[in-house]
Design goal:
Shape: globular
Structural class: alpha+beta
Strand content: 25-35%
Radius of gyration: 17 Å
Strand order of the largest sheet: 1-2-3-4
Number of strands: 4
Number of helices: 2
Number of domains: 1
Oligomer: single chain
Helix content: 25-40%
Distance between the termini: 41 Å
CATH topology: Nuclear Transport Factor 2, Chain: A
CATH architecture: Roll
Length: 88
């Protein structure tokens, strides 16, 4: 019984952290999103060198390097192209 309680507490404790793993970027339908090509062009103008480009939830997400050469993980609003969250 104690093991079940411990497992339940662990799951509940981890849930908020998992919810924050990727941000919510837009509520707009995919039909309103920028094309991947247009988004990649916008990202290039911002100075990022993209290693991986993907759709994560309702965001465009990249892994790569910023204009200073530092590692970057960036989430973008796929409708506006605005940066929603940056990490390294």
């Amino acid at each position: 019984m104690k093991l079940n309680i411990i497992a339940a507490v662990a799951i509940v404790s981890a849930t908020p952290a998992m919810a924050l793993a990727s941000p919510s970027c837009t509520a707009e339908p995919k039909s309103k999103w920028l094309s991947e090509e247009a988004m990649k062009a916008k990202i290039d103008v911002l100075g990022y060198k993209v290693k991986t480009f993907e759709v994560t939830g309702n965001c465009y997400e990249i892994y790569g390097r910023d204009k200073n050469g530092s590692r970057a993980e960036v989430y973008f609003n796929p409708v506006t192209g605005a940066i929603v969250q940056k990490g390294g």
